[in-house]
Amino acid sequence: MRKWLKGGIALCLTAAMLTGCSLGFGKNGSDNENQARTLKVMYYDESSFFQEYGMLYSALYPNIEIQVVETNQIQNTFMEENDNDYDKALAAFIEKEQPDILMLEPTQLEKLGVEGKLYDIESYVTDSKYDVDGLVPGVIDAMKGYGGGNLYAIPTNFSTQALYYNKDLFDEYNVPYPTDQMTWTEVINLANMFPTDGDPLERIFGLKMGWNKQLSTTVDILANTEGLKAFDENTLQMTIDTPAWASIVEQAQSIMKSDVLFYDDMLYGGGGDGVVYFEQNGDYYSQNPFFSGRLAMSLDGNYFVNQIEDAKNYAQNPEDIIENWDMVTAPVGSQNPDSSYYTSYYNLFAINAASTNVEEAWKFISYITGDEYARVKTKVSYGNLPLRTKYMELDTERNYAAFYKLKPMNQTIDYTKIPERYQYEYYNVSSETFNKVTNGDITVAEALAELQLRGNELLATEKMTKEEQEKYWEEQNQMYMENSGSVPMIR
User: Judging by DSSP bridges, how do beta strands 344-351 and 101-104 pair with one another?
Assistant: First the structure.
């Protein structure tokens, strides 16, 4: 089985050089390999760019000099010069640096496109020399969705989650296997078919769907799957005090009353009930209930495949590690059965409409989103999945299509417009409020009304400058130390 997470950049370079690849770039299929050119790329920082893309590309095309303009300048310099408005700062950065290639977020595509700052690359993508059919299904449609109907960018990789299941446990207890595109209600119904009794150190669990046993965590999972938002980013008004949200909270309460769920805090001798479920002297792998055969279903990321393989290779008792497992798509919303909240595209590369080097820019993008790059990068993808499906299937026994069957739910939020106090404080407000529901102190209706009010108060606060954010965290750390007599909290 290949490893997505293992390897090193030297392997990339070696593999690429050995390919002797011959790629036709440009609409006319011509490319003068001996002509020296400069390509300016906007990216997080120069070092990470060359590690991820530049070293490999430069080895293949030594006549191309790549210059990286680092986006950390936006926060460090341009924000202060542009009234702390990120959109203005980004526009000023692009205008000053004039990169040929822009690395962008999904929320930036439509706005920059409408402003005429991005080159529509659809004619290049549909050219017969670019293998669009080998891409993850739906990626082009997703990019057009982000771009308001126009194709401005292509990502280089993506991540997602799937529902992993233990086939032996399903067979033992005569429970039908899960299937693709099940809702959370259907998955919970399957989980409830597994027993909840027995010795705590041996009993099995039906499902892991969250990290901890808090109502707010389960509510967030269910709400995200259904595409519900707690606030409207355009009006900066809360939208949580609604019948739809009330139904989600009531469903979360019902789920948590069941004894079939596993939570990670159970690994450390608890889960709120004081019961020890796992031997504390076992190794990491034996304490994972899915690895050790005590968990029927687990919602986890694509990286979980490598973790299962590591367990078989490095556990103290590898013979006890699960063998007969498979996966289906992550649960879907009742109104969005073809979409997944858990699928995200990363590093979207676009071309500056003002670039005088469009052909060379497309040549670069088409390579890092192409077949040769995907083949090599499967060995060092750092937890992300390759953009091309044929390098995703590690064997023929399992349903790897679960990783790319669902398109991403268009739930992107432009947090540059959201007040920092909301971003910093609402999570704790939500947790505290839902804890009061769990404790019986307030009703669901009262909780949602309280969150509507307190959330609106946070959304009404002003955006902070960089200095104000630093001062805020200094004050928070000081308060934490005064209240706990402990070391400063980690931001």
Answer: antiparallel
Residues 6+ apart with CB under 8 A from 62: none
- Cα–Cα distance for residue pair 106/347, rounded to 1 Å: 9
**182 DSSP assignment:** -
Q: Which of 372, 388, 393 is nearest to 15 (CA)?
A: 372
CA dihedral 327, 389, 1, 163 (to 10 degrees): -10
Distance CA 268, CA 261 (A): 16
Task: Judge whether 305 and 165 are in contact, CB under 8 Å.
Answer: no
210 or 254, higher pLDDT: 254
What does pLDDT average to over the chain? Answer: 87
Q: Are strands 231-232 and 325-329 parallel, antiparallel or unpaired?
A: unpaired
pTM: 0.86
Confidence of residue 383 (pLDDT cuts 50, 70, 90): low
List the single range of 270-284, 365-379, 420-434 with lowest mean pLDDT: 270-284
The region that residue 279 occupies, defined by phi over 0 for left and psi between -120 and 50 for alpha, beta otherwise, is beta
Provide the residue type at 295 as one letter: L
CB 74 within 8 A of CB 90: yes
Kindly write down the DSSP assignment for every residue of 358-383, as one continuous string.
HHHHHHHHHHHTSHHHHHHHTTS-TT
- Max Cα distance, the chain (Å): 74
DSSP 85-128: -HHHHHHHHHHHH--SEEEE-HHHHHHHHHTT-B---HHHHTST
82, 315 contact by CB (below 8 A): no
User: 70 - beta bridge partners?
Assistant: 43
The strand pair at 64-70 and 37-43 is best described as: parallel
Q: Are 2 and 15 in contact (CB under 8 A)?
A: no
For each of the domains in the chain, give its residue range(s) and CATH number, in order of start. 9-159+343-408 (3.40.190.10), 161-213+277-339 (no CATH), 214-260+426-460 (no CATH)
Instruction: Assess contact for 419 and 462: CB atoms under 8 A.
Output: yes
DSSP state of 77: I
> What phi, psi does 245 have (nearest 5°)?
-70, -40
Residue 407, classed as helix, strand or coil, is strand
For 190, 248, 429, 438, the CA distances from 252, given in Å and listed in that order, are: 16, 6, 18, 11
Number of helices followed by number of strands (H, E) in the chain: 20, 13
User: b or e along 249-274 (b: 16 or more beta carbons within 10 Å of the residue's beta carbon)?
Assistant: bebbbebbeeebbbbeebbeeebeee
